[in-house]
């Protein structure tokens, strides 16, 4: 095996693929094929010297090459060459690389000569001249002793003076100032930090106060968010819903997209008690930015809905709606938190292979979740507000009937392009029910007219309990994910409880 290795090595040398070298000591090698000292290697760099190098000159050369290794120049120079190769089409990159090569040589020269006397610097300069490699373009490697601007380096070595303290200090301060100016990203004032916008909306919503004297008030926070690329204005919509008898409602609009608000301004309006029993309050806060003179576009919005029992004579408070998913054995729990701080828990036993995934971007005002099978979405869990929230209207709901109660499902069922079919109650109580159904919707825009756009269908489980939360649950699954028995079992497992 040794003879084979030596034969391969001899042929590689003969072909010019390898250069033979003799170990002098440590990481220092000599070779008759080397004409100028250099450093080669990334992990374990080695210094290569010519046999013709005299004893007096060798000390200077080794000091220079060892300075390269100490400064990690055998890393930085190939990195600089790689960057230049990537951005070869940029002339300034080539200029920068040439100056970089010159500077690392000058830095090593200064590191060596700073402890020398004038005679030592003269001898060092002579060594530079003896092993000058000419004016070939610097490559990635090796770090050659006589490379890059020998004339400049000789002049710098002969006239070297240790820089004064104040010169160094000023240079450091200038570098720090340049770094602060050019290496940091400016704050983009065109994009308002999300927490400022969200905090403004949340603080406005949370200040809503219902008084026992029939007043409804809130306060605009100070300051109002601003954007550099256009004016910002908040606008408010505030309405109250009354019921004078079961199934009969009227809406009082106290504010309808009102603008021109001032920081710290307090609004107070009076509810019209003659309309009947108060059953709901809706408060919407939005922010608009001016996209062109006189033209505004909404960029942030949230809302607060209050239902009985109402908090009187104190700020209603506001909580960002959220949902937390947890598991208890075979049961999956979804804990919903609503904007008024109330909580409700949805529990269900999902069949094997189904799991609750991440949140959806559904525009229902309440967090929606995806249902997954093998990592692919096959359904959704969404919440929608009840069609009615007053007790007299809800008392008329027959929770056991296999007829869709519009008092509960009106928000979806009254749409012209979506609804429910084959509603079948599986379980019920005095205030709620769970049922199977088919969710149908029209795929608008498929044809030239809405009348000819096709209708689609999905399996569905619907559930509600108005004593727990003012919402109903719509759980949809792609057709065929569960058979009829599996869908019924899923509805039977579903329960709603106060959080």
What would you say this structure looks like, in words?
28% of the residues lie in helices and 34% in strands. α2 (55-70) packs across α4, α3 packs antiparallel against α4 and α5 (118-130) packs antiparallel against α6. The chain has 499 residues and is an alpha+beta fold. The chain has three domains: 34-163, no CATH class; 194-306, Immunoglobulin-like (Sandwich); 344-498. It has a seven-stranded antiparallel sheet with strand order 16-17-18-22-21-20-19. It has a five-stranded mixed sheet with strand order 1-2-4-3-5. The model is unreliable at 1-17, 133-138 and 187-194 (pLDDT under 50).
Q: Please give the alpha-carbon distance between the first and last residues.
A: 78 Å
Percent strand equals: 25-35%
Which word captures the global form?
Answer: elongated
Helix content: 25-40%
Taking pLDDT < 50 over at least 5 consecutive residues as the criterion, the unreliable ranges are: 1-17, 133-138, 187-194
Could you give a short account of the major beta sheet?
7 strands, antiparallel
The domain tally reads 3
Q: Helical region count?
A: 11
Rounded to an integer, what's the Rg over CA atoms? 40 Å
Mean pLDDT: 80
SS content category: alpha+beta
Give the strand order of the largest sheet, numbering strands 1, 2, ... along the chain: 16-17-18-22-21-20-19
The tally of beta strands, per DSSP, is 23
């Amino acid at each position: 095996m040794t003879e084979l290795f030596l034969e391969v090595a001899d042929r590689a040398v003969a072909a010019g693929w390898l250069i033979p070298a003799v170990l002098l000591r440590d990481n220092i090698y000599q070779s008759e094929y080397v004409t100028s000292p250099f450093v080669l290697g990334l992990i374990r760099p080695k210094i290569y010297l010519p046999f013709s190098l005299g004893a007096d000159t060798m000390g200077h050369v080794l000091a220079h090459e060892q300075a390269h290794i100490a400064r990690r120049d055998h890393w930085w120079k190939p990195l600089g060459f790689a960057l230049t190769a990537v951005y070869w089409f940029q002339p300034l990159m080539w200029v920068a690389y040439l100056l970089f090569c010159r500077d690392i040589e000058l830095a090593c020269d200064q590191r060596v000569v700073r402890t020398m006397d004038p005679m030592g610097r003269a001898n060092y300069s002579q060594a530079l001249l003896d092993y000058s490699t000419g004016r070939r373009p610097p490559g990635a490697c090796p770090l050659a002793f006589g490379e890059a601007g020998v004339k400049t380096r000789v002049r710098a070595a002969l006239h070297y003076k240790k820089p004064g303290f104040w010169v160094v200090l000023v240079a450091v301060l200038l570098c720090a100032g340049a770094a602060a100016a050019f290496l940091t990203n400016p704050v983009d004032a065109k994009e308002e930090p999300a927490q400022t916008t969200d905090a403004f909306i949340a603080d406005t919503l949370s200040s809503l106060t219902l008084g026992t004297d029939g007043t409804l008030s809130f306060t605009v926070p100070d300051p109002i968010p601003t954007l550099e690329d256009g004016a910002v204005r908040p606008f408010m919509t505030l309405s109250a819903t009354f019921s004078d008898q079961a199934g009969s409602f009227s809406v009082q609009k106290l504010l309808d997209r009102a603008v021109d608000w001032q920081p710290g301004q307090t609004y107070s309006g009076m509810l019209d008690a003659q309309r009947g029993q108060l059953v709901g309050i809706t408060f919407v806060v939005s922010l608009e930015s001016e996209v062109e003179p006189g033209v505004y576009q909404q960029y942030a919005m949230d809302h607060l809905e209050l239902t009985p029992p109402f908090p009187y004579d104190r700020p209603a408070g506001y909580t960002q709606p959220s949902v937390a998913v947890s598991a208890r054995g075979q049961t999956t729990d979804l804990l919903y938190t609503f904007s008024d701080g109330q909580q409700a828990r949805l529990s269900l036993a999902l069949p094997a292979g189904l799991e609750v995934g991440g949140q959806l971007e559904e525009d229902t005002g309440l967090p929606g979740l995806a249902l997954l099978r093998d990592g692919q979405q096959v359904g959704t869990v969404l919440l929608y507000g009840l069609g009615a929230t007053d007790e007299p209207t809800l008392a008329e709901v027959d929770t056991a009937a296999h007829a869709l109660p519009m008092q509960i499902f009106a928000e979806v069922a009254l749409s012209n392009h979506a609804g429910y079919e084959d509603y079948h109650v599986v379980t019920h109580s005095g205030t709620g029910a769970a049922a199977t159904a088919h969710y149908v919707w029209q795929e608008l825009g498929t044809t030239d007219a809405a009348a000819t756009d096709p209708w689609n269908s999905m399996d569905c489980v619907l559930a509600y309990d108005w004593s727990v939360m003012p919402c109903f649950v719509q759980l949809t699954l792609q057709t065929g994910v569960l058979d009829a028995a599996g869908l019924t079992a899923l509805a039977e497992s579903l329960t709603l409880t106060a959080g």
